[in-house]
Amino acid sequence: MTVKTSHLTRRLRHRDILLSASGPAEAYLATDIVTATPQRLARILYNAAIRLCRQAVDDLEDGQAQRATERIGRAQTVVAELRHLSGPGSFSRLYDRLNVQLREAADYRRREVVAAILVTLEARRAQWNNTVRQQIGDRSVSRDWVG
Questions:
Q1: Same domain, 43 and 71
Q2: Cα 49 to chain center, whole Å?
Q3: How many helices (H) and strands (E) does the chain have?
Q4: Which residue range forms the structural domain that includes residue 16?
Q5: Residues near 85 by Cβ (< 8 Å), separated by ≥ 6?
Q6: What pTM was computed for the model?
Q7: 10-residue block means of pLDDT along the chain (147 residues)?
């Protein structure tokens, strides 16, 4: 019974995600997220966190502090999802640390902190890509699939 309830809850949440999409691009992304394998979902999340941090760095350089703060907040949400996806262990501590640093960067509008987080996320994404390639035997893995 618990499995059916959990499955039903997930399906309802996925339906809500799909229904909340405001246009074709959002609907495509929502479908991509809902149907993604854990490996692909991690790729999507890493790419989103990296994109948001890059944009926040640019915004801070351009004096757009409010927009940077919004993007940093969205990056925090993505990093929290990465932590959830990774489960308990050493990487959960890494994601916790990154979230604390993101909060500091947002509070004090510190571009150098966001830039350092960006470097960490890019390195972790590269490690993730290598891990996925090794797990599947490096069988002509497309760059699109792993990131």
A1: yes
A2: 5
A3: 7, 0
A4: 1-35
A5: 38, 41, 42, 45
A6: 0.77
A7: 40 51 70 79 92 97 96 94 84 93 95 97 94 73 47
